[in-house]
Design goal:
The protein has 1 helix and 11 strands, in the order E-E-E-E-E-E-E-E-E-H-E-E. By secondary structure, the protein is mainly β. Strands 2, 4, 5, 6, 9, 10 and 11 form a 7-stranded mixed beta sheet that branches. A 4-stranded antiparallel beta sheet has the order 1-3-8-7, with no helix packed on it. The mean pLDDT is about 95.
């Protein structure tokens, strides 16, 4: 079992920045690829970013590429999502998730591949 707890959400004006964090406990953190997903009201959960076990590989959704940066510190069992140039359409509940197994774009961008999820943190971007 892996327990995930997100933090760092809040209200920010368009153009601003936020840094989300996800703290993991339980199994060996470095065994898991870590992803961020988000879900806006009335919409399906969507992929945002993912980072491999050692941090050498990352993928981003086109909508956040160049604005968001995912990183991890295995020694501290944490993963971060640095968000910059925020837009109102970034408003959503953001979830971190953990998975083992294959690390290919098709696999890691699918929420069904993740076995562990946090409770989510709200990000609201005002215009």
């Amino acid at each position: 079992q892996v327990q995930l707890v997100e933090s760092g959400g809040g209200l920010v004006q368009a153009g601003g920045s936020l840094r989300l964090s996800c703290a993991a406990s339980g199994r060996t953190f470095s065994n898991y690829a870590m992803g961020w997903f988000r879900q806006a009201p009335g919409k399906e959960r969507e992929f945002v970013a993912v980072i491999s076990w050692g941090g050498s590989s990352t993928y981003y959704a086109d909508s956040v590429k160049g604005r968001f940066t995912i990183s991890r510190v295995n020694a501290k069992n944490t993963v971060h999502l640095q968000m910059a140039s925020l837009k109102p359409e970034d408003t959503a509940v953001y979830y971190c998730a953990a998975k083992t197994g294959m690390f290919t774009y098709t696999v890691v961008t699918s929420s069904r591949e993740y076995g562990y999820w946090g409770q989510g943190t709200q990000v609201t971007v005002s215009s």
